[in-house]
């Protein structure tokens, strides 16, 4: 029998990024990866646990999502993706803008998640589009969706228009890299700050703080 002390193994923190981009390569996936990388970088500088990143491409699950909506039975790959999202320590959700809102594929995926399964989970919402005119999609569509799912949404949301890629901003607005770093840092702080994170089994308690959406919106800076 070995007398060597047993090393204490700490499970890595898990960040899951959901990308609803349809093309390949996709600017939506690129934004998801950069947000996840920013959160991972901040986490690694502040604690000694490993950090795992998983990017879920919804376009690869489109047929499975449609089948599940019709039959009520998730194929194995979709079931695994839903479990990874609900069990993640932090979530990044990125959608392209379609008709001034998130895409139908994005909404259909999150329709399959129980409305209590993301209770308290730290989430960064982000979107991509051809023009900056659609940036309010983050506040009038995506943030309310995750408020309904009872997630804890980071103050900074990130919108990337076509002209934002490669831009460093100006005297009035931060460039895309700066906003990505800020949102990633906020997600990292939420993950390590002891806020509630849950899987589908958690039921909200009387001590759960519910911040009205109007109050959240008043405190936000639109990106």
Describe it for me?
The protein has about 220 residues and is an alpha/beta fold. It contains 7 helices and 7 strands. It has helices at about 25-45, 60-70, 75-85, 105-110, 135-150, 175-190, 215-220; strands at about 15-20, 50-55, 90-100, 100, 120-130, 150-155, 160. Strands 1, 2, 3, 4, 5, 6 and 7 form a 7-stranded mixed beta sheet that branches. Helix 1 (about 25-45) crosses helix 6. It is globular, with a radius of gyration of 18 Å. It starts with 12 loop residues before the first strand and ends in a 5-residue tail after the last helix.
Please write out the topology.
Blueprint lengths: L12 E7 L7 H20 L4 E7 L4 H10 L4 H12 L2 E9 L2 E2 L1 H8 L10 E8 L7 H12 L3 E2 L4 E4 L14 H17 L20 H6 L5
Parallel strand pairs: 1-2, 1-3, 3-5, 5-6, 5-7
Antiparallel strand pairs: 3-4
Helix pairs in contact: 1-6
Write a concise keyword list for the protein shown above.
single chain, 38% helix, disordered C terminus
């Amino acid at each position: 029998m070995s007398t060597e002390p047993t090393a204490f193994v700490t499970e890595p923190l898990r960040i899951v990024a959901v990308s609803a981009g349809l093309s390949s390569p996709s600017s939506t996936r690129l934004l998801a990866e950069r947000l996840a990388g920013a959160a991972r970088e901040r986490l690694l500088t502040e604690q000694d646990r490993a950090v795992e990143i998983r990017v879920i491409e919804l376009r690869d699950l489109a047929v499975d999502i449609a089948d599940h909506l019709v039959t009520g039975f998730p194929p194995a790959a979709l079931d695994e993706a839903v479990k990874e999202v609900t069990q993640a320590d932090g979530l990044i959700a990125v959608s392209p803008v379609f008709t001034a809102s998130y895409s139908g594929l994005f909404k259909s995926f999150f329709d399959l998640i129980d409305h209590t399964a993301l209770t308290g989970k730290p989430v960064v919402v982000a979107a991509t589009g051809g023009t900056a005119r659609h940036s309010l999609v983050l506040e009038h569509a995506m943030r309310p969706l995750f408020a309904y799912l009872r997630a804890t949404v980071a103050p900074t949301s990130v919108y990337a228009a076509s002209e934002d890629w490669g831009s460093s901003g100006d005297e009035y607005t931060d460039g895309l890299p700066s906003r990505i770093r800020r949102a990633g840092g906020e997600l990292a702080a939420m993950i390590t700050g002891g806020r509630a994170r849950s899987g589908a089994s958690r039921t909200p308690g009387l001590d759960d703080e519910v911040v009205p959406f109007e109050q959240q919106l008043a405190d936000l800076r639109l990106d």
